[in-house]
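Box 3.1. Reading complex inputs
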Amino acid sequence: MEFEEMQKIWDKQRNEMLFVINEEALHNRVKAKKRQANRIVNATEIGLMFVNTITATILLVDAIIDKEGFWDYGGAFAMMLTVLYLLFIRRKRKIAANKFDRSMLGELDHAISNTNSILQLVSTMIWWYFTPIAIFTISKMLIKGASVESWLLISGAFVLAYFLVNWERNYCHIPRKRYLEALKQKLME
Amino acid sequence: MKESEQQKIFSSWLADHKGLIFKVLRAYASTPEDREDLFQEIAAQVWRSIPNFRRESAVTTWIYRISLNIAISWSTKEKRKVNPQSIDTVEHLISENDTPLDERLAWLYEEIKKMNEVDRSLTLLLLDGFSYKEMAEMIGISESNIGVKIHRIKRELTKRSAKYQNHGV
């Protein structure tokens, strides 16, 4: 069969509808989807900023009440820095969203850039988020003398968080980035 | 833009161009659940895109571009596991028409489905009569690159059709 013949077969379907739409259900779903748009990303960013601000406030109040809490002041300051960093990342992401053209290649570049942002955030999180918090927490526990249970609990929480973040990076984001890059390669070759 | 106005445009776009969305669904999604999921994604994106439509391109081109972009990114995502019970209880967005598909058309769709995501898009655009220039703008690569790809697709489809006819399937 020549391609022109395939074209004729294809054209015949124009008047035949393959599916029937339930318009009312669709309208309801689209409205729900609209509300849901960006909810996950926003919830992660805003949630993290909220939790860090609350933690910073608690540490600050603790430091003021203790009157000798250098580690609490330091911890509160480090926490506030993470909030500012998250604000910066969020703003960068929003500006970048309008930068890409609407072609397929543009959309792919956008998706790759989003994945890169997440990877950057995850890598930054490990070194610039967990490490200072771990240092402040461990130093405070050393100075104030924590029980064995506290040591086990806190160390376990840090190790678990470290593995979870790494797992997410290696098994979700990196394969997705590779797939998108392979797709871009297919588009360009 | 008022929501009622957006809704009006959405309904009219859907009425006039649902055919092309269905073609994308058939080319990218295999099961009814997947088609439902992809259709929902495309419809939501078409809805969101309405305030950004500047009439620089035809509505058909605009909707095709959105549908193909969504279909490609949708197919890169890990498919969620669908609970069979929930499928029965949830109100369906689309149902398949009872009219049986022409056997040769069904074969053509199967062949398109076997292609990679990019070639699938190009084949749909080619079969729907888009020019190389329009395709180049939609895909974001040069016209000459489009030409090379189209040549390869046509050659491959013709070769496969010979096999199909020889086996009399």
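In summary: Residues 21-188 of chain A form one domain.
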